[in-house]
Amino acid sequence: MSPMDDLFLSSSIDQTIRLWDTRTPVCQGIINLQEKNNAKQCVAFDHAGYIFAVGIDSYRIHLYDLKDYQNGPFEVFEINVDTQGPVEWTSLKFSNDGKYILISTNVNIIYVIDAYDGTVLQTIESFENKCQLNLAAGFTPDVKYIYSGSQDGSINFWERETGRHVAKLHSHNEPSSVVLFNPRYLMFASADVNLVFWIPKEYLGH
Protein backbone atom coordinates (compact mmCIF):
# COMPACT_ATOMS: atom_id res chain seq x y z
CA MET A 1 0.00 0.00 0.00
CA SER A 2 1.33 3.45 -0.88
CA PRO A 3 1.91 5.62 2.22
CA MET A 4 0.77 8.71 0.33
CA ASP A 5 -2.43 7.81 -1.54
CA ASP A 6 -4.83 4.99 -2.47
CA LEU A 7 -2.44 3.04 -4.71
CA PHE A 8 -1.27 -0.47 -3.92
CA LEU A 9 0.78 -3.17 -5.63
CA SER A 10 0.23 -6.88 -6.16
CA SER A 11 2.42 -9.69 -7.47
CA SER A 12 1.12 -12.79 -9.20
CA ILE A 13 2.09 -16.29 -10.31
CA ASP A 14 1.61 -15.06 -13.90
CA GLN A 15 4.88 -13.08 -13.43
CA THR A 16 3.22 -9.67 -13.41
CA ILE A 17 3.29 -6.78 -10.97
CA ARG A 18 0.09 -4.74 -11.04
CA LEU A 19 -0.67 -1.26 -9.80
CA TRP A 20 -4.14 -0.70 -8.35
CA ASP A 21 -6.24 2.13 -6.96
CA THR A 22 -8.65 1.28 -4.13
CA ARG A 23 -11.26 3.57 -5.72
CA THR A 24 -11.61 1.45 -8.86
CA PRO A 25 -11.55 -2.29 -9.70
CA VAL A 26 -9.56 -1.63 -12.88
CA CYS A 27 -5.80 -2.26 -12.88
CA GLN A 28 -3.92 1.04 -13.31
CA GLY A 29 -0.65 -0.39 -14.61
CA ILE A 30 1.20 -3.64 -15.23
CA ILE A 31 4.82 -4.83 -15.35
CA ASN A 32 5.56 -8.09 -17.16
CA LEU A 33 8.62 -9.52 -15.46
CA GLN A 34 9.26 -12.27 -18.03
CA GLU A 35 10.75 -14.54 -15.40
CA LYS A 36 10.58 -18.32 -15.21
CA ASN A 37 7.14 -19.63 -14.29
CA ASN A 38 7.94 -20.58 -10.69
CA ALA A 39 9.82 -17.38 -9.81
CA LYS A 40 8.16 -15.77 -6.80
CA GLN A 41 7.96 -12.05 -6.12
CA CYS A 42 7.36 -9.66 -3.25
CA VAL A 43 6.74 -5.93 -3.54
CA ALA A 44 6.91 -2.80 -1.39
CA PHE A 45 6.59 0.97 -1.69
CA ASP A 46 9.25 3.21 -0.18
CA HIS A 47 8.45 5.62 2.68
CA ALA A 48 7.51 8.45 0.31
CA GLY A 49 5.48 6.46 -2.22
CA TYR A 50 7.66 7.52 -5.17
CA ILE A 51 9.68 4.31 -5.54
CA PHE A 52 8.78 0.66 -5.23
CA ALA A 53 10.89 -2.46 -4.94
CA VAL A 54 10.24 -5.88 -6.44
CA GLY A 55 12.03 -8.89 -4.98
CA ILE A 56 12.42 -11.61 -7.61
CA ASP A 57 13.24 -15.29 -7.10
CA SER A 58 14.73 -14.62 -3.65
CA TYR A 59 17.98 -13.12 -4.91
CA ARG A 60 17.26 -9.96 -6.94
CA ILE A 61 15.69 -6.60 -6.14
CA HIS A 62 14.46 -4.26 -8.88
CA LEU A 63 13.80 -0.62 -8.00
CA TYR A 64 11.21 1.30 -10.02
CA ASP A 65 10.22 4.94 -10.23
CA LEU A 66 6.42 5.08 -9.85
CA LYS A 67 6.18 7.73 -12.59
CA ASP A 68 8.44 5.87 -15.01
CA TYR A 69 8.01 2.16 -14.26
CA GLN A 70 7.04 1.43 -17.88
CA ASN A 71 10.70 1.93 -18.85
CA GLY A 72 11.93 -0.74 -16.49
CA PRO A 73 13.86 -0.63 -13.22
CA PHE A 74 16.34 2.17 -12.64
CA GLU A 75 18.41 -0.10 -10.37
CA VAL A 76 18.90 -3.85 -9.94
CA PHE A 77 20.61 -5.49 -6.95
CA GLU A 78 21.70 -9.11 -6.73
CA ILE A 79 21.74 -10.21 -3.09
CA ASN A 80 24.39 -12.90 -2.79
CA VAL A 81 24.55 -14.53 0.64
CA ASP A 82 25.70 -17.94 1.84
CA THR A 83 23.02 -20.10 3.47
CA GLN A 84 22.91 -23.71 4.60
CA GLY A 85 19.73 -24.44 2.64
CA PRO A 86 17.13 -22.85 0.35
CA VAL A 87 15.79 -19.54 1.62
CA GLU A 88 12.63 -17.99 0.18
CA TRP A 89 11.92 -14.28 0.54
CA THR A 90 8.45 -13.57 1.92
CA SER A 91 8.32 -9.75 2.09
CA LEU A 92 10.23 -6.49 1.61
CA LYS A 93 9.94 -3.37 3.76
CA PHE A 94 11.56 0.05 3.46
CA SER A 95 12.66 1.96 6.53
CA ASN A 96 10.95 5.28 7.28
CA ASP A 97 14.02 7.22 6.15
CA GLY A 98 14.27 5.28 2.88
CA LYS A 99 17.87 4.21 3.53
CA TYR A 100 17.31 0.52 4.21
CA ILE A 101 15.30 -2.43 2.93
CA LEU A 102 14.40 -5.34 5.19
CA ILE A 103 13.98 -8.77 3.61
CA SER A 104 11.92 -11.33 5.53
CA THR A 105 12.30 -15.02 4.69
CA ASN A 106 10.60 -18.35 5.37
CA VAL A 107 13.35 -19.38 7.81
CA ASN A 108 14.97 -17.73 10.82
CA ILE A 109 16.87 -15.21 8.68
CA ILE A 110 16.22 -11.50 8.14
CA TYR A 111 18.43 -9.39 5.86
CA VAL A 112 18.90 -5.64 6.11
CA ILE A 113 20.34 -4.10 2.97
CA ASP A 114 21.43 -0.64 1.89
CA ALA A 115 18.63 0.74 -0.30
CA TYR A 116 21.13 2.70 -2.42
CA ASP A 117 23.64 0.02 -3.38
CA GLY A 118 22.19 -3.33 -2.26
CA THR A 119 24.93 -4.11 0.26
CA VAL A 120 23.86 -6.60 2.94
CA LEU A 121 24.37 -4.70 6.21
CA GLN A 122 22.91 -7.16 8.73
CA THR A 123 21.87 -10.79 8.80
CA ILE A 124 19.55 -11.51 11.74
CA GLU A 125 19.14 -15.15 12.80
CA SER A 126 18.48 -15.21 16.57
CA PHE A 127 14.79 -16.15 16.50
CA GLU A 128 12.81 -19.33 15.91
CA ASN A 129 11.18 -20.33 12.62
CA LYS A 130 11.71 -24.06 12.13
CA CYS A 131 8.26 -24.48 10.55
CA GLN A 132 9.06 -21.97 7.77
CA LEU A 133 6.25 -19.60 8.75
CA ASN A 134 5.56 -16.24 7.17
CA LEU A 135 6.49 -14.09 10.17
CA ALA A 136 6.11 -10.32 10.27
CA ALA A 137 9.25 -8.18 10.58
CA GLY A 138 10.13 -4.54 10.08
CA PHE A 139 11.77 -1.37 11.37
CA THR A 140 10.66 0.72 14.32
CA PRO A 141 9.54 4.24 13.27
CA ASP A 142 12.87 5.78 14.35
CA VAL A 143 14.76 3.13 12.33
CA LYS A 144 16.97 2.32 15.35
CA TYR A 145 15.60 -1.19 15.80
CA ILE A 146 14.47 -4.21 13.79
CA TYR A 147 11.62 -6.33 15.09
CA SER A 148 10.18 -9.73 14.24
CA GLY A 149 7.66 -12.25 15.41
CA SER A 150 8.76 -15.79 16.18
CA GLN A 151 7.51 -19.35 16.04
CA ASP A 152 7.65 -19.50 19.86
CA GLY A 153 5.28 -16.50 20.11
CA SER A 154 7.88 -13.97 21.26
CA ILE A 155 8.52 -10.53 19.77
CA ASN A 156 12.23 -9.89 19.22
CA PHE A 157 14.16 -6.64 18.79
CA TRP A 158 17.66 -6.00 17.45
CA GLU A 159 19.73 -2.85 17.02
CA ARG A 160 19.66 -1.95 13.36
CA GLU A 161 23.22 -0.61 13.34
CA THR A 162 24.91 -3.52 15.11
CA GLY A 163 22.48 -6.44 14.81
CA ARG A 164 22.67 -6.96 18.58
CA HIS A 165 19.63 -8.66 20.13
CA VAL A 166 18.22 -6.26 22.73
CA ALA A 167 14.79 -7.54 23.79
CA LYS A 168 12.48 -10.55 23.72
CA LEU A 169 8.88 -9.87 24.71
CA HIS A 170 6.43 -12.62 25.65
CA SER A 171 2.65 -12.62 25.42
CA HIS A 172 1.62 -15.17 22.77
CA ASN A 173 1.27 -18.94 23.04
CA GLU A 174 1.11 -19.44 19.28
CA PRO A 175 3.51 -18.08 16.61
CA SER A 176 3.45 -14.27 16.55
CA SER A 177 2.87 -14.02 12.81
CA VAL A 178 1.61 -10.41 12.81
CA VAL A 179 3.54 -7.47 14.29
CA LEU A 180 2.85 -3.91 13.18
CA PHE A 181 4.09 -0.58 14.53
CA ASN A 182 2.25 2.69 14.57
CA PRO A 183 4.07 4.60 11.78
CA ARG A 184 4.74 7.64 13.98
CA TYR A 185 4.88 6.52 17.60
CA LEU A 186 6.63 3.78 19.58
CA MET A 187 3.58 1.63 20.07
CA PHE A 188 2.67 -1.55 18.24
CA ALA A 189 0.27 -4.47 17.99
CA SER A 190 0.98 -8.17 17.63
CA ALA A 191 -1.23 -11.19 17.04
CA ASP A 192 -1.39 -14.95 16.98
CA VAL A 193 -4.99 -15.97 17.66
CA ASN A 194 -5.20 -13.05 20.11
CA LEU A 195 -4.48 -9.37 19.53
CA VAL A 196 -2.06 -7.64 21.91
CA PHE A 197 -1.24 -3.91 22.13
CA TRP A 198 2.18 -2.82 23.40
CA ILE A 199 3.67 0.40 24.77
CA PRO A 200 7.41 -0.16 24.34
CA LYS A 201 8.61 2.28 27.01
CA GLU A 202 7.01 0.07 29.67
CA TYR A 203 8.95 -2.98 28.50
CA LEU A 204 12.16 -1.56 27.01
CA GLY A 205 12.78 1.19 29.54
CA HIS A 206 12.80 4.07 27.02
Descriptive labels:
mainly beta, four-stranded antiparallel beta sheet, single chain, 206 residues, globular
Can you put this structure into words, describing what you see?
- With about 210 residues, the protein is an all-beta fold.
- About 0% of the residues lie in helices and about 45% in strands.
- The chain contains 1 helix and 18 strands.
- The protein has one helix spanning about 200-205, and strands spanning about 5-10, 15-20, 25-30, 40-45, 50-55, 60-65, 75-80, 90-95, 100-105, 110-115, 120-125, 135-140, 145-150, 155-160, 165-170, 180, 190, 195-200.
- The strands form 5 sheets. The protein has a 4-stranded antiparallel beta sheet, with no helix packed on it.
- The radius of gyration is 17 Å and the shape is globular.
- The two termini are about 30 Å apart.
- The mean pLDDT is about 95.
